[in-house]
Amino acid sequence: MEVATGAGRPKPDVPLVALSGACVHFGAVRALDGVSLTVSPGECVGLMGHNGAGKSTAVNVINGGLTPTDGQVHYGHEDGRKGTGAARARACGIRSVFQELSLCPNLSVLENLRVPHRDLTGFGWRKSAAGRIAGALDEIFPGHRIEPGMIVGDLTLAERQMVEIAAGFAGGPTPPRLVILDEPTSSLDASIARQLLEHVRRFCAKGGAVIFISHMLGEVFEVASRIDVMKDGKIIASRPASEFTQQGLIDAMGHVANEKAAARAAVESSQRIGEEVLKTPEGLSARKGEIVGLAGLAGHGQAEALARFFMSRSGKLTRVKDPEAAFVAGDRGRDGVMPLWSILRNLTLTHLPSLTRRGLVDRIAEQALGADWKKRIGIRTDNLGNLILSLSGGNQQKVLFARALASSAPIVVMDDPMRGVDVGTKQEAYDMIRTEAASGRTFLWYSTETDEVCQCDRVFVFRNGQISAELTGDGITEENILAASFQMQGAGA
User: Fold this and answer.
1) Number of folded domains that form the chain
2) Where is the signal peptide (predicted)?
């Protein structure tokens, strides 16, 4: 069994990677504008910034995926040698785990490991791969139920993220020395995320290093020894994590949320909520204008319940122009974006029937709809005609969110819709949800973040595919949600 432990404690004064004045330009766009940073053994660097700040570009320069337009990037080898390029990055044990999962769904877990671990060749490679990935999964996520021979497409989103993380930390001839984690807990529930954070601390304590990118500020403060803040392609602040407060970090990143939103008085739920508009066989129900949360440990039936309800209210020709439900995907790569289409076409996809005049799409109306929602939800792009994959993961999620809210559907089904979305944009989205609910729209909202679930009017906690508790009002607390997640109670408890 091969499990990485931070690889040999290289000298802490020799940086694993050093960027000096690194710039990356895409035409007139300065994605990276003179970034200088170093990462040394034993460090966990929290890389923070709103969507589009340049974090992903910086990561791709560090792992050798992008060559800087200007400036330099150097890697420090264990024996003191230095070098540049993607090959040198791999040789120095730099691994990346991206928010947009890169696993091949038609291959097994162990077969997927062979893609990044190029030494897995020849007779007996399957046995070696199975031992390597199983060892990493056992080390990071004790109690997991993932077998090396399982087909990735059959795994839940959380399990796929666990596999990708395990592959990043798995040992081999060149063990990991610097692991880049981009929104690693975005699909994990609280207990599994806790296991990962504990492993990050152990890994760094043994001489490894981690670059940790997350919009969950509490997690960053738990593991980061230093925090670097990016804005508009530059690092605008870099100091020990202990010298930041959460509010100070938000201030450093810069506010993008509507300042008036926090002061806006919420409509009393008793005035807003009307008659019952849905009820499912599982016992899930919602009323007009109600925000209903689905909670519990990931993989316990929440997403399946949402999918069953959505499919029961969609797919019929009579509902094309007047849909009964809209959907915001959590797994945007599988269920959300059309990767070969533009941002605009992805945003307006479900609105084509209402934009059609005499069999032709009214392009002027389509452009107006896209421009309106680009402004309202803050999609960071200069041109809606660009491919959807030109956006950061968080901005892609904004497009899916806009697609649903721009529809006329009275019910919006949301499957963990805030994955990878920055703090400011989340606040804007929460305000939009409350505003839409005040006008009579109903929301079914599954989230892996307890803070989001606690904003709902009513919460159904799932365990083993069943509703273990129904919480309302002051009963919607993290403690009650966790208690119901681990111990079956009667529905309505």
Assistant:
1) 2
2) none
